[in-house]
Design brief:
Number of strands: 5
Number of domains: 2
Radius of gyration: 22 Å
CATH class of the largest domain: Alpha Beta
CATH topology of the largest domain: Rossmann fold
CATH superfamily of the largest domain: HUPs
Bound molecules: iron/sulfur cluster
Helix content: 40-55%
Order of helices and strands: EHEHEHHHHEHEHHHHH
């Protein structure tokens, strides 16, 4: 029997999932979950969500919605483990144990922390300790189930590097315990937002949501920023300066791509026609996901809670064993 590799990935429980989440990560999760050489753990990081003050009802609503969306895109809750971070209290315990092996300087230099801290200071908001120690909790998430592979986006690389350092550090101090997790970046894609300013993201309000209706998709793409240097249809455009062309590259056929590229650069195709092709392809992608999601409505949020309950039990079983081992080795067992 082949020894399966543990694949772990998490997502914060905030807002509805969008095309950037799907094309940038979730599509890849489905592929990983269908590979029988992998044992996949997908968790919703509802504890990390608390670094931002969010209404508890919203966290719960978003958590359930993410579970149902994961299932709608094709992740099978029987073969993969879908769970909430809060279902495994031992992860928080591991967070403390690993925090005692982490220097404040390491955390202060994390780009994510520096960016958030600067923004909070501009807004005169409190920088909470959770923001600083966020990467240690993420290391606990990764090391708890003894993950071998971690598929994450580029912005999370420094955090996974910390988890890798902590695995090596712990192994050197206390003996071989953690596999050093491999960063899977092969298919992590940066999906541009509709405002032409950067990545598609909930906080940037520049998304196509996975549950958007065809009319909403049409409206959003209609307003999306294109190559800003192309003012009139008669101006030749540069698709490489247009976020919508990147979306075409992710969604359209080779024939359509050639047609768009040639039409844009020769001013034979206007942005309206180019957008029509894109809208059609987005709607084609979303339709089966939405059908499955509406089917799940019949089972209701009770089903999402059942999945979380079962997933939580399975994840906890694995993580408890790691944390017990770690505590033994560090000299602080349960008496
Ligand atoms: S034709 Fe398409 S690729 Fe070219 S600028 Fe317009 S939307 Fe972008």
């Amino acid at each position: 029997m082949i020894e399966k590799k543990v694949v772990l990935s998490g997502i914060r429980a905030t807002g509805s999932l969008h095309l950037g989440n799907y094309l940038g990560a979730m599509k890849y999760f489905v592929k990983l979950s269908k590979d029988e050489k992998n044992s996949c753990y997908f968790f919703i990081a509802n504890l990390h969500t608390l670094t931002t003050r969010i209404n508890p009802d919203d966290i719960l609503r978003d958590l359930k919605e993410i579970v149902l969306t994961y299932i709608s895109i094709g992740i099978d809750p029987e073969s993969s483990v879908i769970f909430a971070q809060s279902s495994v209290p031992e992860t928080s315990e591991l967070n403390w144990l690993l925090a005692c092996l982490t220097s404040v300087a390491e955390l202060e230099k994390m780009p994510h922390f520096k960016e958030k801290k600067d923004m909070k200071e501009i807004l005169h908001e409190t920088v909470n300790v959770g923001l600083l120690t966020y990467p240690v909790l993420m290391a606990a998430d990764i090391l708890g189930p003894l993950a071998n592979k971690v598929p994450v986006g580029e912005d999370q690389h420094p955090h996974v590097e910390l988890a890798r350092d902590l695995a090596r550090r712990f192994n050197a101090l206390y003996g071989e315990t953690f596999p050093v997790p491999e960063l899977l970046e092969g298919e992590a894609i940066r999906v541009p937002g509709l405002d032409g300013k950067g990545k598609m993201g909930k906080s940037n309000q520049n998304t196509i949501d996975l549950m958007d209706s065809p009319e909403e998709v049409l409206k959003k793409i209609g307003k999306a920023v294109t190559d800003t240097a192309r003012v009139r249809k008669s101006d030749a455009g540069n698709p490489l300066n247009c976020g919508l062309y990147t979306l075409h590259q992710l969604l359209s056929s080779d024939g359509e791509l050639m047609e768009v590229y040639a039409g844009c650069t020769s001013a034979q195709m206007g942005c309206v026609d180019c957008k029509k092709i894109l809208v059609e392809n987005i709607n084609q992608l979303l339709a089966p996901i939405q059908v499955k999601r509406f089917e799940l409505n019949e089972k209701g949020s009770k089903y999402a809670l059942e999945v979380l309950h079962e997933g939580g039990k399975r994840a906890r079983k694995k993580i408890v064993a790691t944390v017990e081992n770690v505590k033994e080795k560090m000299g602080v067992p349960l008496y």
